[in-house]
Amino acid sequence: MFDIQTLQTNSENPTFYAILISVVLAIVLSSLIVITYDLTTRSLDRNHHFLQSMAMISIVATMVMQAVGDSLARGLGMLGALAIIRFRTTLRDPRNMTFMFASLAIGISCGAFGYTIATVGTIAFCIMAFVLRFSPFGKSESLTGDLRIVAYARPGLTSEIENIIKPFVSSFIMKEYRTRDKKVALETEYQYGKKIVTESEQQRLKEIFYDIKIRKDKDDLSLMNRLTEEEFVKQVKLKFTKIDRDL
Question: DSSP label at 241?
Fold first, then answer.
């Protein structure tokens, strides 16, 4: 009678059936990881190459582990061979990196004939991914953006602006503050039907930059309209990752 336990201890010279079971199990478990990622991610732009890589990297890890076995010489040789390959792809999302590492761990476990470890670990990982997806940690955040305000200098300017901003945002922080001068032309009088325009002294402007997070019950357009209602505000610009509105 076929006993799967014998496969987990014979790592020096694995049989064909042992290799076959390891590869098939790696494919099944990594596919489960890919399905879990697809169902739990909030990203609308799914990179199909990334999904394919998650499914295939477990097979590569299985082959490497079975090729090395318990041989130290093979391990050092494989390390030198893999050092030639340079991986330049960057995963900006730590969650994507975690899923890729999980698929790699499946391949390593299956290649080392740790079928129980691979199966239990994959199930636990997938369950945790679904729990976090529907927990408060998985809820979508408010819109976060850069707010730029240009206003005429006056006492207590920043306090006035921040009092206007507060009802529309859940949090904000001033990240930059600039002062610049602007010449303002004034009409003084009429002479022979023509306007005589003189230039006043330079008028000081303040340019303030905030990082803000819009409240879920508010919208960015309401905030911008409220700011532009103030006479001392000259220009308002609110920029999100994929939204750029200017008033």
Answer: S
